[in-house]
User: Fold these one by one.
Assistant:
Number 1:
Amino acid sequence: MDWIGLGIILAKIIFFLLVGFTTAGYIMNYAERRVSAFMQDRRGPNRVGPWGLLQPVADIIKLFFKEDVVTDRSSKVIYFLAPMIIAFTALSALAVIPLTDVLTFFGRAISVQIANLNVGILYIFAIASLGTYGVVLGGWAGNSKYSFLGGLRSSAQMISYEVSMGLSIIGVLMVFESLRLNDIVLGQSPLLWGFLPRWGVVVQPLAFIIFLTAAFAETNRLPFDLAEADAELVAGFHTEFSSMKFGLFFMAEYINMFISSAVIVALFFGGWQIPGISTAQIISFFISLGASELLSSLLTIFLQLGVTFAKIASFMFLFLWVRWTIPRFRYDQLMSLGWKGLLPLAILNILITGLVMVLNI
């Protein structure tokens, strides 16, 4: 790899880190409050900056300067490692998220994606599984009964729903015949019957419902936030954490929301694609308006980024919407839904998909 290629990769890494931190900050400290205020007929943040847009900056500065309280009874090494583990795994999963198609600039194939792994979707599941350790170790290291119960709940919940989530995408992989997220997105470009996008949600609707439900459980969001149930466990696994250690736990939750939304978009909603319009057609359109080939490729990237982020934003809004409308499950209901509801449906979806493919329906 030459210096230019290395510079391109570093630029992509910086871009995705900025996207991750900015998304976490503004969804966590601005959009969440705005949505909840709208649903409760309140104003929400409107003092710091125009329309309250600098509220996330103020909250982050506050977290940095808050006292970092470390309890005497905590296991110090693990106590410091736990928030780092969960933040590292959340940021690492961003590496394989495809935001645009591959375009050619000066003889180089470039896309807004750090690594186009041939096992991209498996990489995301592997990283998500490692994130469980951060939650469990955080719950154990604080040496508090509340934290410990939250960590136990979270480990059981995340492992249970990872099984259903993993099985739910088998049907998608069978249809699109690839583990690369890019290939899966490109496989959704044709139109069915000349008008209906061949998106994953169309060809695998049951898989989409299972995956979306499991995504709520994996991110510990309401109505599946039993690991942080304030009425029972104060704040659950991060009760004993303060200052930026708490901030890292909180940030990781919202980055995981972004990743879950991005994966849903890639698997089920065509990623960067506009139905019925290919990348080549978009470039040709800009060229017909008088733009050069280079400018047309740049405009295509910006357009595809806008399409991808619009789709991701719609699902992140869904995460916020559900939090403020649906009450929390009981823990037995949560586990029953995972093992007795979603798991059999995921297996049934695989059997139906295989039968359809064998019979060539």
Note: The beta strands are 103-105, 108-110, 191-192, 196-197.
Number 2:
Amino acid sequence: MFEPAGKQQGQRPLACGTAALSRQYSILTERAGFYPVAGRRLIRFVGGDRIAFLHGTCSNDVRGLAEGGVCYALFLTEHAHVVADCYIWRAPDAVLVEIESEHWPAARAQLERLLVADDVEFEEQTALCALRVEGPRAREALSLALGAGALPVEPWRWVEAQAWLVACIAGSGIDGFTVFSSQSSQQALVAGLSGQGIALPVEPESAEILRVEQGIARVGVDTGEKTLALEARLERAISFSKGCYVGQETVERATARGGVKKRLMGLRFAAPEPVAAGSAVMFADKEVGRVTSAAVSPRIGAIGLAMLHQSAWTPGITVTVTDGQERREATVSELPLAPPSADSQGRQANTRSVR
């Protein structure tokens, strides 16, 4: 029996078939949309051992990250189970870790256990809040609102410009920026974006459609306490060439021996609506997994992500998804379910290559 992956199991799929969210999807894919991200937090790591400490406690190459660079990384247990994911921003005198607020307590508890005689301190930047600006015209919109000099010139870079910390990160699989500032500065930025006619406010649910299309696992939704990093296909957050880090032995063993028995895969539903997250996926009269995320894409219809046993990894096979009394057929698909736009090609590349 498969255990539900994330805490949102049993919830109905995103109401992405509505006209409003369909319009917002078009804004994100054709223009630019912006929305506050209430659950994001910046943690400032200071002290002489900050680089070495984070390099040894997360999955990506912090030591090789240049100042002004950003990389995606994971905090793992010794058995490579995912504790939390984060973006690491390298600054001259500190390292900023952008993380979900609800995941920070578990990550912090693990880091504190590993902190022995290291010269490292954590400072939570509680006065800062985050805004996401995404879409092919996101750079144009932000340049008008903040000035071109306030934006990083390349993806996976960040700059500090007056009241704003601005990073170019493709979080949902499309071009985008994360902006941290005070609440008053964020309100000023929203006013500046709203008055241009280029960027429009959207709901975070519209960006979720793009995430599901791209097959990007959301930690805590598509993963559970026992989910391995490689099962969630989070290789882009892992450096396979750096030295020792927590969880490395299990990651290396699974990579070398092909030891992963389940993996995140895509589902394309025959019906116009997907089923709820947590629904069982059946193949050859056996349960082979659970739906972890579901959405309705204006481009490709009802879709979902599911953590499936290796017996159901073959793209094109038909599975039955059960949600209570409901039974719906779906086709297993490789990820991504929909190719990224031409403008976003390469934006999701592993940030270990960005220097």
Note: The CA atoms of residues 279 and 323 lie 5 Å apart.
Number 3:
Amino acid sequence: MRAQDIHRVVDTFTRQVEIPKYSRMVPLSEISDPKNDFNLNLPRYIDCTEPDDLQDIDGHLRGGIPDRDIDDLDRYWRIFPSLRPLLFESIGRPGYSRLKPPVADIKAAIFSHAEFTAFNASVATLFAQWTAANAPRLAGIAKDDHPKTLIETLSEDLLETFRKARLINAYDIYQHLMDFWAETMQDDVYDRQRRLERSHQAPAHH
């Protein structure tokens, strides 16, 4: 399991939260029911299967993007409400649309859109806040500091900061930091501490 997977399991258990297709509070009466007979196999209580990828035969044969597929991106349209009509238009057949800009221009159309740039700025602001709060901790590492305590403080603050971000999985951001810690950062921190220890142990010259 990745660091983010372990953290999410612990958080979910500690907070006793129910998350669709991930966690559920199951009463003892359901576990002891004869159909379960105290079997704790998770699929008995949580349906974590992914929905089937429905193929639209009419769309394949006559062209067009099914509106239901576009509707499935509702979590984006709620944040970028005017972006959908910029990208899609009716194909002239009920229930189907087509792209308005050429495929090669879609990325530029999204990245330059005012709602997207505002969203991007809000995420950058969160990261800047986290950086400002934690840069002194990194700059002020002392020889007696514990690196594991440091990364725990940094990562927990990062996770809490990005819980406020829309569309972004805070645990994914947490994983990026933990990967960087494992690959690079922890060696730098330990190396800095060794240098600090040597500087304190060096004899003074008069």
Note: DSSP finds ten helices and three strands in the chain.
